[in-house]
Design a protein that fits this description.
The structure is a homodimer. The first copy, chain A, has a four-stranded mixed beta sheet. In chain A, helix 1 packs antiparallel against helix 7, helix 5 packs antiparallel against helix 6 and helix 5 runs parallel beside helix 7. The radius of gyration of chain A is 17 Å and the shape is globular. Chain A contains nine helices and four strands, in the order E-H-E-H-H-E-E-H-H-H-H-H-H. The first copy, chain A, starts with a strand and ends with a helix. The mean pLDDT of chain A is about 95. Chain A is an alpha+beta fold. Helix content of chain A is about 60%, strand content about 10%. The relative contact order of chain A is 0.15. Chain A has two domains: about 100 residues, Glutaredoxin; about 110 residues, Glutathione S-transferase Yfyf (Class Pi), Chain A, domain 2, CATH 1.20.1050.10. At the A-B interface, strand 4, helix 4, helix 5 and helix 6 of A face strand 4, helix 4, helix 5 and helix 6 of B.
Chain lengths: ~220, ~220
């Protein structure tokens, strides 16, 4: 059964692949699972039919037969558990890869989101500039620790896993800030993720949505 | 094999059970798994032996034979997958319960943490008071959505699950703010979680650590 995911009808990042559907697309490409995409507008995301799928009115969602899922982490874990290619076979190694999924989403991403959304939510406030070093510092503290742990390894724990997939997409949210570039091993890690054929297919697919919309 | 978790040697919340070891204790109590606790000081948490277990220098960690795990969400999912009592049997219902684990940690908790830590990190800044309505508003937006979804159900999706366990502990972080009390169904939901015998055993165990330390 072909799953259906949701994505922004009009990508706020102009096809840079930073929206969360990119994460699910990449996971589906890694395991070779074809999928359908249903596009939703910002208005539709806050209306009852979409809220029935996603109580917090976000994308992506995932529908497959009787199953409807929300939360990118849960969707990717579901895909990873049901296919080969995103989690190791060994039970302990699988549990550790799952820890990296949570680390990417719960420990590394929150200060990155906070730094990013302050521009939209508080960019016009008098304290905006004064708070920047504090927000940057919180991001760097996590990247210091992540960089120390990665060292000169290719991936966070053995083979490429769903944990790496999420960590790479989380770090990509810092594009343009120059912060990841302060850590050569993290820059190389992100580039290694982006060089994967499955990443490229997923990226091209989401870019095509933006290109088609902007040529209409 | 009895697992060992880590917890703060000296609880910053004075035994109120808001530290993340409480979440893992509760999960272990729900499934009836005995456990050991190793206490770490704030200094030890940032030193190499603990960083080898937890790359971001936090608690809790989880050790069981050859397995060492970090990230509360991953630890609880590991416990839930290996025992009965924290996830439904049906595969689709299990995936949905997992979505609530991620929703608690990734969607509901981040604005709550942000609201909380701004007091410590920015309590002395001139903008602190002016930002409070904005931070409270972000928390209320998520609680509006959560309250709508919960409705008059006892738990988020059928029987009590690891998703409820995490959501209850996340909402407890708002204690004293008066915000949860604005949502009678969420207040009742938190109380329902706290009334579970496994919750009480976990709470008493972490409180005993504080009581013993303060009587020394």
């Amino acid at each position: 059964m072909t799953p259906t995911i949701t994505a922004f009808e009009s990508s706020p990042d102009r096809g840079r692949g930073l929206a969360r559907d990119m994460r699910v697309r990449w996971a589906l490409e890694e395991v070779g699972q074809p999928y359908e995409v249903r596009f939703v507008s910002f208005r539709e995301m806050k209306e009852p039919p979409h809220l029935a799928l996603h109580p917090f009115g976000q994308i992506p969602t995932y529908e497959e037969g009787d199953l409807a899922l929300f939360e990118t982490g849960a969707i990717i874990l579901h895909i990873a558990q049901r296919h080969t290619g995103l989690l190791p076979q060994d039970a302990n190694a699988r549990a550790r890869a799952t820890a990296w999924i949570f680390a990417a989403l719960n420990t590394v991403e929150p200060p990155i989101v906070e730094r990013e959304q302050t521009r939209y939510a508080e960019g016009d406030k008098p304290w905006h500039e004064a708070r920047r070093p504090l927000l940057d510092g919180r991001v760097r503290r996590r990247l210091d620790q992540l960089s120390s742990r990665l060292g000169d390894a290719d991936w966070l724990d053995g083979e490429f896993s769903a944990g790496d997939l999420l960590m790479v997409t989380v770090l990509r949210r810092l594009e343009g800030s120059g912060i990841v570039e302060e850590y050569p091993n993290l820059s190389a890690y992100v580039a290694r993720g982006q060089a994967r054929p499955a990443y490229k297919r997923a990226f091209d697919a989401q870019l095509a949505v933006f290109t088609a919309a902007s040529s209409r």
